Amino acid sequence: MTWVDVELALVAVAAMLSPTTLSFSVLVLVVSDRPLRTGLWFYLGALVATLGIGVIAAFVLGDAAATADPSSPKTWVAVIDIAAGCALFLWVLRALRRPRDPQRSASMLEKMRAVSASRWVAIAGAGAALANPGGFIPIALKNISELDPTAAEYVANWLFFALVSLLPLAVGLLLLLVARGWTMRVLERLRQWLELHARTIAAVIIVALAVTLVRNGIAGLTA
Questions:
Q1: pLDDT digits (tens, 9 = 90+) for 44-73
Q2: Backbone angles phi, psi at 63, to 5 degrees
Q3: Are 118 and 34 contacting, i.e. CB atoms less than 8 angstroms apart?
Q4: Which of 67, 75, 144, 164 has its CA 20 to 30 A from that of 102?
Q5: Quick check: 24 and 169 in contact, CB under 8 A?
Q6: CA 189 vs CA 13, 16, 30, 186: distances in Å
């Protein structure tokens, strides 16, 4: 396993624990009268959108970031790593300094109530817009490109990233199939807990990712 593989794993976990995505994934199950239906379309919308971006990127980016030695990235890749790491550090600092906004939480709740009452097309569209890995996608694409993958390896790596980033919602759906009443009670408690602690949890993983990016970028420039 190379440092690029470690970085890709961190990116996937950071995307999974993104406070906004995680909160929307829990809310879509909690507020719906038919959580399994709503959650499934929401999940499929996010998954298809993420996979679609990966397919497009396979043709656009390909192996442009690859080198013979993964420990010595191209100069432009190293610069992107440092810039992305610094941007993540700044995001964490800003997020942790910003006080909790009850109005924002209420707005998210109302938005998901409206989504849950919509047709399946609207639910899938909301999933594509609200539960995709967002800003972590470019970093993941860069990582995969650095690995110089074959077509099969590219598919496997991107599928890994997409599935991990949406893992909390997938787990929630599976638990609903097994024990709906218990799962709904747990999800409601989890929603309240996330309002207090989601940013802190995400910050820990994102700082680890930022450190890795900056370290790899500096190593690449000084190699």
A1: 999 999 999 988 888 877 777 777 766 677
A2: -105, 30
A3: no
A4: 164
A5: no
A6: 22, 19, 10, 5
